[in-house]
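Proteins fold. Shown next:

***
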Amino acid sequence: MRLHRVLLGCGLLLSTVAMGQNGPRQVKGKLELKQLSNDSAFAWFYTGVNKYNVNANMVNYIKTNKEKIKLVALVNTADEASRKLLPEFYKVMILASVPEENIQMYGVDNSGNSGDNAVDGYKVKKVPTILVLQNGKEEGRITAGSPTSVEENLAQILMKMNAKRKD
């Protein structure tokens, strides 16, 4: 009986907090994975990661090439396209065992400004965008609305990088 009361109380509290919000929370500046994972304002992130089904072959290819790249994700946490792409991207990164230090993530406002001059120097016009870098040089971009999956886009960029190196 006591457990039921506690659960009911928690449910009421969460629904009150959810109703009190004016919409999705927008974050500007550097974002951390634990911030997205642990903050109830970003419940969409956890749900999206768990819901996304990956192409295992593409993920395995990324895994074999994971040390070659750095990734910079620019997202608007209040934007529906970012709220779809970011969890998919992170699920691929987790399954491909890409080191967390190889991934940087920044929240941008509606004008695409992150508040960080170095990041804003990438001149991203469409959000969300994931930049794929090797040795500080941009090798490709992944954006929302692509007809192919995050892992397929990243694997294609890696294949082009590997083909260039063989030349």
